[in-house]
Amino acid sequence: MNNFLSLQYFIPEFILLLNVFFLFFSSETKQRHLIKVRQILLITSIFTVIVLYLIRWFDRPYGLFYNSFVLDPFSNMFSILLLLTFLTFDLPEIRRIKHSNSTDILIQKLIILTASILLVKANSSIGILLCIGLIYIGNSIAIYGFSHAEKDRTQINTILTSQILLFGLLFFGFSIIYGFTGSLYFHAVHLPVTALSESPLNYCFLSLFLILGLGLFGIILPFRSLREEHHQTNFANYYSSSYLPVRLPVPIIGTQTGFIPFLAMFGSLIRILNGIIPLIQNGVTVPSEYKYFVAGLSICLIAGANCYYLKRKTINDLFTISLIIHYGLVISGLAVFTREALTASIYLIVSTTIILAGIIILQKNEAKSTQSKLIKTVFYLGLIGMPGTPGFTGRFLLLKSLYNAGVPLWLMVSIIISILPIIHFYTKELIRLHHTETNNSGLRFEYFPALLVIFSFLMVVYWEPFVQLITKSLVFFN
Hints:
Helix content: over 70%
Shape: globular
Structural class: mainly alpha
Strand order of the largest sheet: 1-2
Oligomer: single chain
Order of helices and strands: HHEEHHHHHHHHHHHHHHHHHHH
Radius of gyration: 22 Å
Largest sheet: 2 strands, antiparallel
């Protein structure tokens, strides 16, 4: 397929970019009817893109632009997830856009969203670096518009420096892959089996720089924020600013500047590991040294987050370490890289995103009602991993997949012990929540968080069809 004919498969991305240009040229529009048209067009475009991805979900894979990008069920699944995350956080804000400043912020969000979708589809080192660079640029522009205080600028510069360093780490790592294989395309990049069987340290080293380089929004920035004084930071603004550890008086900022790249980079990590690992294609067992290395990395990540909370003990820090801990659990699924383990990892990351999204939406409303306390209780139980919640189902499926793949029992017990502190932390917070007074004056029912609660229950009741849907999307295991 030549490049011109393959353009038809990028229609969803073109639709999103057209909205970016339309918002850019109409950002100064003051007429009420034009603002309404802009809102309707954007919402209609996003739902149209979701429908297109649903129609194409299980089409056969296509290599586009000389395989720099690939369209398959796996990328379609993550694209739908990214779009739904965008709608979850920003649909209420889109309906309230009234001035140019809000439009400028929304433009950056759409750029980050489009770049994240392309990142999941990227099938070459060049495509990965270009998409990540675009995400960093959009994120940097959004961050610089938050505050003009000198103290805030210093912290912002530190975060931007971290982005540059991690981008350099990825560039260096992909150069090593090219040196090993002589190719930039993941479908043709297969490390020699002998290089891994004779020296598994090569495999561990490559996996380490990929996990760290693509873990900016899931590991590096959250850990960085735990070191800053942000006790008074509102949690919704805190996550909306890509874990920026400063107080941001910008209520309209959505969370996809942090959450959407986080999800996209995880999907990209799976695609890259599939490309450079010859073990799947050749039926070779994953070296035990690699299992110990990745599982140990997961345990260290979880233990480090728990230690930070013991030092700080604020509610904002608790939500931050919950993301780090769940990301550490997800990484443990990469220790064996089987279909079952990856399915459980994706299930867990989706359920965690739903739970944290519901908490963020509730945190935007500082007043506490009986309904909000009840909904937040359900979300807390999910983070604790109570049976009957998607948190428990995801952890059970993940540990079961590790056991079936031959991970030693003592290593699995270590993973379980490492997540016990977060259960204790959230249990205490749950008790504290129910001792707070409620205020029902002038409050309306939280419809959208309630909808997320219903969906989380559906993930538990119908977990088997949902897991089968994810498994069917992992086409590179066929």
